[in-house]
């Protein structure tokens, strides 16, 4: 066999191997990102369930546990959430919609709002170390924002100026709005 043919054959085989390795590495990176997204979402859901149980009285109020749950949500929202859903958004095993890329400003705004509400809850825990104080509870007229699919105001209300329970409900509404807009509907 001609040495030039052997050389070119070797280069072609090497190129195929490198391309296959690059594809496998990219797929593994996509799966790692999807896995991290799923981990973070599960952690936020568990944290929200703990806060909800404290507000409902099915779990005793514990300021440290309340704060830890709020901090979990704060840590996994905002910039971290934006980065985990950076391009490419759609990957194998994800329920993320390509509409995140198409409407990045709205997704980023919701991710930031989630963090702001969680921060307000964390501060409320610091300010109420003994129990759920009346000022942490919603009062009549606090819930005037409509349902999770209601048209949102241009500027979100300041979470620091509302009772913690209202901030919690607004945080849940933010999650619901984001999932409604940016999550692929189930089969």
Describe the structure.
The radius of gyration is 23 Å and the shape is elongated. With 187 residues, it is mainly alpha-helical. The model is unreliable at 13-29 (pLDDT under 50). The longest helix has 54 residues, at 3-56. The chain is built from six helices and no strands. Helix 2 runs antiparallel to helix 5 and helix 5 packs antiparallel against helix 6 (164-182). It has a single domain (39-182), classed as Four Helix Bundle (Hemerythrin (Met), subunit A), CATH 1.20.120.10. It has helices spanning 3-56, 63-76, 78-84, 99-102, 104-127, 164-182.
Spell out the key features of this protein.
single chain; 187 residues; mainly alpha; Four Helix Bundle (Hemerythrin (Met), subunit A); 6 helices; 0% strand
What is the compact description of this entry?
This protein has 187 residues and is mainly α. Helix content is 65%, strand content 0%. Helix 3 packs antiparallel against helix 5 (104-127).
